[in-house]
Design goal:
Elements lengths: L7 E9 L2 H11 L3 E5 L3 E5 L7 E5 H4 L13 E9 L2 H13 L6 E4 L3 E7 L5 E7 L4 H11 L7 E2 L2 H9 L18
Parallel strand pairs: 1-4, 5-8
Antiparallel strand pairs: 1-5, 2-3, 3-4, 6-7, 6-9, 7-8
Helix pairs in contact: 3-5
Bound molecules: fe (ii) ion.
Fe (ii) ion binds next to strand 1 and strand 5.
Length: 183
């Protein structure tokens, strides 16, 4: 049995049509501060993690909708858990794949290398590895790049697993190594 486990809860993403109200509520209740904000997306944190909450503004992203109270439309989008190294993330991917569980999406976000899974009810979760060793570096990246590309690039997890097993660097500090970048 594999001993690979995530090391910590990382963040939760909410979809909302009460964008400003939600930001103010989480700032007040959690003493959180806004780390990054544009009209569609905001990141808040209450500690040294680069984000603990993110809010997607559905009023801007899906303006044709009007629902403010129906869960699944608004509410939790996904919860994220962090792994300490690319090796852990991708060996866990291999373990889960053998058991018939594959991610529905894999994205290199720039600040994290992420895999998205859904449980049998369709609840979404993200397994991630940080690309930077400090939130200052992550925030600098966010402020420099998110206005151009807030999502990142999709990658092929099988390809990355092969390269990691062939000896490509798998520690967190080397995630941004160009040799591992998918594009
Ligand atoms: Fe996320």
């Amino acid at each position: 049995m594999s001993g690979i486990r995530h090391t910590m809860f990382a963040h939760v993403i909410y979809r909302t049509r009460r964008f400003q109200q939600m930001l103010q509520w989480y700032e007040t209740v959690f003493n959180a501060k806004v780390q990054y904000q544009n009209p569609a997306l905001a990141f808040l944190t209450y500690d040294d993690e680069h984000r603990r909450f993110a809010f997607a503004n559905l009023s801007l992203l899906q303006p044709q909708g009007t629902e403010t109270d129906r869960h699944s439309l608004i509410g939790v989008d996904h919860v994220a858990y962090a792994y300490t190294s690319l090796s852990d993330l991708f060996e866990n991917y291999a373990r889960l794949k053998e058991k018939g569980n594959s991610p529905y999406r894999c994205v290199h976000h720039g600040i994290t290398v992420s895999m998205y899974y859904a449980d049998p009810d369709g609840n979404q979760m993200e397994f991630q590895v940080d690309c930077f060793s400090s939130s200052e570096e992550a925030n600098a990246f966010i402020n420099a790049h998110f206005s151009v590309n807030p999502v990142g690039v999709e990658y092929d997890p099988a390809d990355w697993l092969t390269r990691l097993r062939a000896g490509a660097p798998g520690s967190r500090a080397r995630v941004a190594d160009p040799g591992l970048d998918s594009k």
